[in-house]
Write a structure and sequence with these properties.
The complex is a heterodimer of chains A (about 220) and B (about 210).
Chain A lengths: L11 H19 L1 H15 L5 H6 L2 E8 L8 H12 L4 E3 L9 E8 L2 E8 L4 E8 L2 H10 L15 H30 L4 H25 L2
Antiparallel strand pairs in A: 1-5, 2-3, 3-4, 4-5
Chain B lengths: L2 H31 L11 E5 L13 H14 L5 E2 L3 E3 L4 E8 L2 E8 L4 E8 L1 H11 L13 H30 L4 H23 L1
Antiparallel strand pairs in B: 1-6, 2-4, 3-4, 4-5, 5-6
Helix pairs in contact in B: 1-3, 1-4
The chains are: A alpha+beta (about 220), B alpha+beta (about 210).
């Protein structure tokens, strides 16, 4: 009877190393398209003039007027949602500022690539809807920035489920990248013969970033 | 297979160089998505400077020429950083300009007629510094953006981060594809990621 080959059990360190490497590339594979999107759109945003002529030229605006039924019973948010349902508009509501005219109810509905201004005349129950549509470049840029909130603007909170999901996916991509950084460093630490180059590469990155995060304000121009 | 060891070394070392940049861009995402920056709300330190000397062309110059004229004034006032935009109020002969560095914001008001300057400096902390770097150089005020050395260099590094990240991701796919044992799970995750991505984009724009 042939003897079965002896299987050496993995030590906890080796088991961790194996799962660490798997986590590194599994996360990379799951988030691949998100990472490419945010990387490429980040590049587009940093080069504001790339495709800008096409972007401006391709913007199309349409305007229409609609009779609406005013509920005027709930909060501005529920009233805006009711109007959006009647006008068949979906997206993130943005409050632009306080209007001094009591006879008006204005808001904007945004989603990547489409911006809709809704201006309601409360006296005549008429809504003027101005819809601006952007091209693919505009959509790509908007996806990078679309969070539903703005710094120092407490008026606007996320009120569309899809915006919340998109914001959560941004968090998830960021968390995933941080885990990939940590797992990558662990993989490098386990690789004895390549520590020298790795140390130089990591050190160069840390020095560069530390200079920008704290050095510029202390010593820079 | 001959490319494998070289590519693995490149993937590892480029990834290590990128790591701190990815930390800056990723950590700042949480602050941007939740519009909250810890430690950014401190009272500014304000000082007034009198007898400020202005170049003759400061009010008539435009674009880069105006930035250069204002820069000479800021240098004498020991105000350092990127000029965000320039607001000129001709009636009052007054300039209002934000001057920023990672972790520091300075609101400068220059009164050419009275030859005074009001300078309010606010130390905004490391979290704000990361948010600033995430957004720089950005799509706004392209004509004057990069009026300091640090933004010019950061623009280059931010671009390099994207190109190197693309290289690391493509080389990572190759390195994974060579590992036959993990192909099934990897392909499932790649497909799941593509579905989540496609589904979300469809919901956002369709």
């Amino acid at each position: 009877m042939p003897s079965s080959p002896e299987v050496t059990p993995l030590t906890p360190t080796r088991r961790f190393a194996k799962w660490n490497a798997r986590t590194h590339y599994y996360l990379g594979l799951y988030f691949l398209f998100f990472i490419w999107l945010f990387a490429i759109t980040g590049l587009l945003l940093n080069h504001g003039m790339w495709g800008m002529a096409d972007f401006q030229r391709s913007r199309t605006t349409s305007k229409s007027e609609h009779r609406v039924i005013l509920s005027r019973s709930g909060t501005p948010l529920t009233e805006a949602r009711d109007l959006m349902r009647q006008l068949e508009i979906e997206g993130e509501i943005q409050w632009l500022g306080t209007t001094s005219n009591a006879g008006r109810f204005d808001f904007r509905v945004a989603r990547p690539g489409i911006q809709t201004e809704v201006r309601v005349d409360l006296n005549t129950a008429t809504a003027t809807v101005e819809r601006t549509q952007q091209n693919t470049l505009g959509i790509a840029r908007a996806l990078h920035l679309f969070t539903g909130v703005r710094m120092n603007d407490p008026k606007n909170n996320r009120d569309w489920l899809v915006t919340t999901l998109w914001a959560l996916s941004m968090d998830a991509v960021a968390a995933g990248l941080l885990v990939m950084v940590a797992s990558g460093i662990w993989i490098w630490l386990q690789t004895d013969h390549k520590r020298g180059f790795g140390l130089i590469a990591l050190g160069a990155g840390i020095v560069c970033c530390a200079w920008f995060v704290v050095g510029v304000s202390l010593f820079g121009n | 297979m001959s490319a494998y060891p070289t590519l693995r070394n490149l993937h590892l070392n480029v990834g290590l160089f990128l790591s701190p940049f990815i930390v800056i861009f990723s950590v700042s995402v949480f602050f941007l998505v939740h519009s909250w920056i810890p430690g950014a709300k401190q009272a500014p330190a304000t000082r007034i400077v009198t007898d400020v000397v202005f170049p003759e062309n400061v009010e008539s110059a435009k674009g880069h020429e105006q930035i250069a004229a204002l820069r000479s004034v800021l240098d004498r006032l020991n105000v350092r950083g990127e000029i965000g935009f320039v607001r000129y109020i001709p009636r009052d002969r007054r300039f209002v300009l934000p001057v920023t560095q990672p972790g520091r914001q300075t609101a400068v008001e220059l009164n050419v007629g009275a030859r005074t300057a009001s300078i309010a400096t606010n130390a905004t902390g490391i979290a704000d510094a990361m948010v600033y770097l995430h957004k720089m150089p950005g799509p706004h005020n392209v004509a004057i953006r990069g009026n300091t050395f640090h933004v010019q260099v950061w623009r280059w590094l931010a671009d390099a981060t994207v190109y190197l990240l693309l290289f690391v991701s493509v080389s990572g796919i190759y390195l994974w594809a060579v590992l036959k044992a993990d192909r099934r799970v990897g392909l499932s995750l790649l497909a799941a990621g593509a579905l989540s991505f496609g589904g979300l984009i469809y919901a956002l724009i369709a």
